[in-house]
Design a protein that fits this description.
Layout: E1 4-20, E2 23-37, E3 40-46, H1 56-71, H2 76-82, H3 87-104, H4 109-112, E4 120-121, E5 124-126, H5 131-140, E6 146-150, H6 156-166, E7 171-175, H7 182-194, E8 199-201, E9 221-223, E10 242-245, H8 247-250, H9 253-265, E11 269-272, H10 279-288, E12 294-295, E13 313-314, E14 317-318
Parallel strand pairs: 5-6, 6-7, 7-8, 8-9, 9-10, 10-11, 11-12
Antiparallel strand pairs: 1-2, 2-3, 4-14, 13-14
Length: 327
């Protein structure tokens, strides 16, 4: 083997700021893994997430700890036991997919489906703010068919009503990022049903969501922080209606495919989401998201500057990656 692995830490400015219930940020910090073999280079991008104990330094260290094995020829299947689920494995796994395609002269999508991938309608995310500011965000994006609305506890009902009023023709996903409680859950769910909300993501903290199995709800509830890999799914049956698959949680496209297939077997609806990253991070997720019930791959739309070449977006449509970008 003549493989060489390298790691780069990069930052891309966000257009304005991005705020959820856990805080705000003004740039997307990403790690790019490049693997070169026989004159071809495959790349993968990940976004370390502090919610899961990851930092830029810790994720780089994870990749570096596995570098010798990867340069010696470890493949994607071996990676599933060599590295834990998370951002580091995602960057390496996606780089290996890209490298395999370039060495083999094929496109990654050819290994996943009998038909070419199609453009997908992605959600567009509105940051958490006061109701007036969120209404202004919604009004500015009211032509988009699907909006994802970050909420976060106190004052959420006013936020939800303001957004729905400002974008009456858009379908709405609410993302609470674990910020609701058993005390306010039923009232929030009732208002969401009244307003025709399409989906609610992770209302209660991961590990404290058993209460969801004791209540009726008209609006489907989607697991996000509660699901990382396929092994998590059995415990979520009866609690959630859908699962949000993010490559940075699952640890790559290989694990994401296993998670999707198992989720479908268990009757979950599928959402494919993302952290705030560049087109390189979204590219493999676009292939995973083919046929998904909900797609949330708007990371590059939130940036002031994307990498080049980039994914093509037209309004809320995201197009499959070209070879020059990935896969």
């Amino acid at each position: 083997m003549s493989r060489v692995l390298s790691v780069a830490l990069e930052a891309f400015p966000i257009a304005g700021s991005f705020t959820i219930s856990r805080g705000s940020k003004t740039e997307a910090e990403v790690i790019t893994c490049s693997i070169t073999d026989s004159g071809k280079t495959g790349r993968g991008e990940c976004v370390p997430y502090r919610r899961y104990g990851e930092t830029m330094e810790s994720v780089r260290a994870e990749i570096e700890n596995a570098t010798a094995r990867i340069e010696a020829g470890a493949g994607r299947e071996e990676l599933l036991s060599l590295m834990r689920p998370g951002a580091a494995r995602n960057a390496v796994d996606c780089a290996l997919w890209d490298l395999e395609a370039r060495l083999g002269g094929f496109r990654v999508f050819e290994k996943l489906s009998a038909k070419p991938p199609e453009p997908l309608q992605t959600a567009y995310t509105l940051s958490l703010a006061d109701p007036e500011t969120m209404a202004a965000q919604a009004r500015a994006n009211a032509a988009r068919p699907l909006l994802k609305v970050k909420i976060g506890g106190e004052g959420d009902l006013a936020r939800i009503r303001a957004v729905v009023e400002a974008a009456p023709d858009s379908r709405i996903i609410l993302d609470a990022n674990e910020a609701w409680t058993e005390q306010n859950l039923l009232e929030n769910l009732a208002v969401a049903a009244e307003l025709g909300i399409a989906l609610i993501e992770q209302p209660l903290p991961a590990g404290q969501d058993a209460y969801l199995g004791t209540i009726d709800h008209a609006v489907p509830i989607c697991a996000d922080e509660s699901v990382h890999g396929a092994a998590d799914l059995d415990a979520l049956v009866g609690l959630y209606d859908a699962v949000n698959i993010k490559l940075d949680k699952a640890g790559g496209l290989t694990a994401g495919l296993l998670l999707r297939d198992r989720a479908l077997e268990l009757g979950f609806s599928i959402m494919v989401g993302c952290m705030v990253g560049t087109s390189l991070a979204m590219a493999p997720a676009v292939l995973l998201a083919q046929g998904a019930d909900f797609v949330d791959l708007d990371g590059p739309l939130l940036l002031a500057r994307d990498r080049e070449p980039a994914l093509a977006y037209s309004g809320s449509l995201v197009f499959p990656p070209e070879r020059a970008l990935w896969g």
